[in-house]
Structures are given as structure tokens and as C-alpha cells.
Amino acid sequence: MKADARSTVPKSSSSLLNFMKKHYFLYLMLAPALILTLIFKYGPMYGAIIAFKDFSPIKGIMGSEWVGLYNFNKFLSSPNFEVIFMNTLKLSFFGLILSFPVPILLALMLNQIRRSAVKKNIQLFLYAPNFISVVVVVGMLFIFLSPTGPINQIFTWATGEPVMFMSRPEYFRWIYILSDIWTSAGWASIIYVAALANVDPELHNAANLDGANLLQRIRHIDLPTIRPIMAIVFILAAGGIMSIGFEKAYLMQTATNLPSSEIIPTYVYKIGLQSGDYAYSAAVGLFNSLINVVLLITVNFIVKKLNEGDGLY
User: Cα separation of 188 and 28, whole Å?
Assistant: First the structure.
């Protein structure tokens, strides 16, 4: 079967044209997605050129003066660069490290539940937070963590004074990460639950007969099954380590927690849309994207070395 599959792959431009003519209907089905990708993903890349120009809306992109790397140097030499860059990196890195294992653990625990009705109810409970709007989630955080909220009532009773969770910079990062785990971990576990559903039950029965306990069965049967998926998910997550969601961070910002909450996406929004410095904000956003690309390639290379050649590409 593998040899037959390889024989259908076109080996030259003429054979490729013949292959496309023969299977034209498949390419017609692909065309809408391809066109939308070109328009909405690759088309806007043209606008990235303003990062290298002193952009003026009146002169337009091509009419604006070319300044080269001036906007990038301006950002790198800015007194805010180190704070903003480190805030973004810390929030992304700690978020990845803390949130990545949680969906795997949830999937492994769900896989041990044998009663279908109980399993479905637990899954519904875990998946539901993913469908709550970011605005609602942040509103809930402000209500529950406010000085007069239910959590601070406990602290006030125990210590005599409330904790200013949403105002103190040292609490911002942990509140952001833990709330993100609560909203996304259950939904992210779906892919692992689906992979574990393909595990042959006979493997577990045979391991039971050999005297393997639960942890040994998970280590030698379940984890090897989902290891390729874990590698791909980790690579994609690490490749987007600097791409933090703008909405939640911006909504959680207060005047007093800015030393920890000001990250690259919120900074780009403020200097681009609020201050109107489009060229500078484009340079900052492009700098952020370049770091993501470098991280994606680097992490993929490392994971392939550690995972017997299994990576994203």
C-alpha cells in the first residue's frame, strides 16, 4: 500500500499538471480556503512595509519616505523595551510551562472513567469555560477579586485587611495564567482524549495480567500514544510564545499594575491606534512576529532531536 501511495505522487511539472487535471474536483474544493488564506493572511503582509517607512496616511505606503531600520532601532533603544519585552516573555513562558501539562493530565484522568454518562458530564463541566467571553471572564475576576469580593472577605476575616489582587503588579501574572488555564485546559484536552480513545483495550488488559499498576499502564501505553500529538502541540505553543491574547491583558490592566501588565500587544495597540504612530507600531509587531518564527524553528529542531525525528516538519 505504501508503494502504491508513493507512485501517485507527481515527480515533474508535466506529471503535476496531469495529476491536477485528473483530480481537478479536489482542487476546486480547496480553492475557497486557498483564496481566503491569500486574501486575509498573505495580502495584509504588504502593509508590513510601513515598518520600514516614515508612514504618512496622506502620502500612502509607497509615497512615504523610506527610513530602513529606524523604527526597529527606536523600539530597541526605548527605555520601555526591556520591561515590555520581559513582561511578554515571562507571561508567555510561565503560561506555557504551567498550562501545557494540564490538558494532558485531564485527558489521562478522563480516560480512566469507565461510566460513559459520568464522563460526559465531567467533560461538559470542563469544556464550558472555553465558551465564556473574555470580557465576561475578566469581569468575573474583578468581581471575585475586588476588595469587597467573596475571596477578599475570607482574607479580611483571616488577616484583617483585603488583598488588592487586581491592583498589585506581582499578582497580575498569576491571575492571568491561572484564569487562562481554567478557561482553556478542558477544551485543549479534547485532542488528547480523542487520541487515547484509539488505544486498544487489550493492551491494558494484558498489562493488568502482567501485574502493571495504573501509573505503569499510563507511562507505557497511554503516554507513548499521545507523545506525537504532545510534540506538535508543544511546538505550536512555543512558536507562538510571544503571541499573547491582547484582549484579556488589556482588559485586566489598571493604572497600578502596568509594570507587569504592559506587554507588546497592548503596547502596539496604544502607540498604533491611540497615538497614531502606525509605522512604529508596525515595526514593534513585526519584531514580535520574527521572534515567534525563530522560536518555532528552534523548538521544532530541539523537539525533533529529543523525539526521534517527530516534529512539526
Answer: 32
**pTM confidence score:** 0.81
User: SS3 for 53?
Assistant: strand
Distance separating alpha carbons of residues 54 and 71, to the nearest angstrom:
8
pLDDT computed for residue 10 by the predictor: 56
Q: Are 127 and 186 in contact (CB under 8 A)?
A: yes
* Measured distance CA(114)–CA(119) in Å, rounded: 7
| Alpha-carbon span 290 to 118, nearest angstrom | 46
Q: Which residue has the higher pLDDT, 198 or 35?
A: 35
81-99 helix and 169-188 helix, angle to the nearest 10 degrees: 40
Task: Report the run of H or E that residue 54 belongs to, with start and end.
Answer: strand 53-54
Residues 6 or more apart whose CB falls under 8 angstroms from that of 286 comprise 48, 51
At 81-117, the pLDDT tens digits run 999 999 998 898 898 899 999 999 999 999 888 888 8
Instruction: Measure CA of the first residue to CA of the last residue in the chain; give whole Å.
Output: 23
Residues with Cβ within 8 Å of 99's Cβ and at least 6 positions away in sequence, in order, are 177, 180, 181, 184, 185
> Tell me: the pLDDT tens digits for 139-193?
999 999 998 889 999 888 888 888 889 989 999 999 999 999 999 999 999 999 9
